[in-house]
């Protein structure tokens, strides 16, 4: 739907409009003056179109506007004309150019990408950085990830729910939480929606999903961690880990198909390739054996390092689910296997050498939860708020959680998770 500033997006222009008058709007991406002809490249969030004006055939006011500084925000009225040398085989011959907001400050870095800029500088001016074609492509893909996640689960009979970010108790114990003042009482920013999605299933919703921010007060400074992340969570009632893995595989496959279908231009801009083939599945013990054969010996009960995960992707491919982790290295609420209590009904999804999803069947019986806590040396009284939820008829249930930014980071081959967070929060960054 057009308005007085824009009638068409760049992506909507084509040879079918040749000879027609159109109005486009966006930013001046680049200007090239070759004497008698001036080329202005106009960029909106869908692409770039060439605007061409010839001296002697063009009004002087328009020619002056054709030399506006890069990143000027403009609205251009013109005629679509075929040109085999131009992008998409067309260009616009301008009839008027309106400068919608003259620049009053220098652009902090080269948006075309011809001159590299440090990530910290780009993040300090993220509102400018988002104009870069590669940044736009990343967040276009991230949008499709979210839409596809929802579409697959809604089609599968799941309900989307909302859960609070402010909680009375630290949801995963007392460490690494952000404490806030809540009308004179202590509250915390939620580390996970774990308890609440389980409560929804106990309440009879059966299959739920959510997209929520979570907060971890960890003082790390790595390329894989943030202090505020977005989780895509799922919980399934009357289900075990096998059911949850099935839902995970279907969801990941739907996300990959969604990006392939809707983001061909973004994939081309970033020069990436989506993984093909099925998601493989291997047990923790088998993964240990293969790692040992590859020279990375580990004992049963050791968790995988990032280097181990990279090696597993070399051995099994980019899409891998590892199952049956040792009970001792999983969360206390993870259901042990009925055939061997040292093994848990748990799993991780490793994508391109990085764990982006963790899940399990949950313990749904209060006495079993109490025993699990005692075995770890924890006081069940400290978890009474959690245990009590299972005393009124909790069904077997299982679930998982994908980190949105980490999934997007690996999908677009970014080196730093901050590239996949529009306004990242880490231990040193609280603005913009």
Write the layout of secondary structure elements.
Layout: E1 21-33, E2 37-44, E3 47-54, H1 60-65, E4 73-82, E5 90-99, H2 119-124, H3 126-129, H4 133-155, E6 159-160, E7 166-167, E8 179-182, E9 185-189, H5 194-202, E10 207-215, E11 228-237, H6 241-262, H7 264-270, E12 280-283, H8 284-293, H9 306-316, E13 319-323, E14 346-351, E15 354-361, H10 366-375, H11 384-387, E16 397-403, H12 404-411
Helix pairs in contact: 4-6, 4-7, 4-12
Percentage of helical residues? 25-40%
Beta-strand percent range: 25-35%
State the helix count: 12
For the biggest β-sheet, the strand order reads 6-10-11-16-15-14-13-12
Question: Whole-number average pLDDT?
Answer: 95
Return the structural class.
Answer: alpha+beta
Distance between the termini: 31 Å
Major sheet description: 8 strands, mixed
| N-to-C series of helices and strands | EEEHEEHHHEEEEHEEHHEHHEEEHHEH
Total count of strands: 16
Spans of 5+ residues with little confidence (pLDDT < 50)?
none
Query: What is the global morphology?
Result: elongated
Gyration radius over CA: 26 Å
Descriptors:
432 residues, alpha+beta, eight-stranded mixed beta sheet, five-stranded antiparallel beta sheet, 26% strand, elongated
Walk me through what this model shows.
The structure is a single chain. Helix content is 28%, strand content 26%. The chain has an eight-stranded mixed beta sheet, sandwiched between helices. It has a five-stranded antiparallel beta sheet with strand order 3-2-1-4-5. It has a three-stranded antiparallel beta sheet with strand order 7-9-8, with no helix packed on it. The chain is α+β, with helices and mostly antiparallel strands and 432 residues long. It has twelve helices and 16 strands. α4 packs across α6 (241-262) and α4 (133-155) crosses α12. The two termini are 31 Å apart.
